Amino acid sequence: MGMVQKRKKMHSGDTHLRRRWRVRSRRRDLDQIDEDLRTQSAELINQKVDLDQPGFAQFYCVHCAKYFIDDHAMQAHFRTKVHKRRLKALEMEPYTVEEAERAAGQGSYKAPKKRVMETQPSKEEVKKGKRVLVQEKLEEDEAPKSKRKAQKMET
Question: Are 50 and 57 a contacting pair, CB within 8 Å?
Answer without folding.
Answer: yes
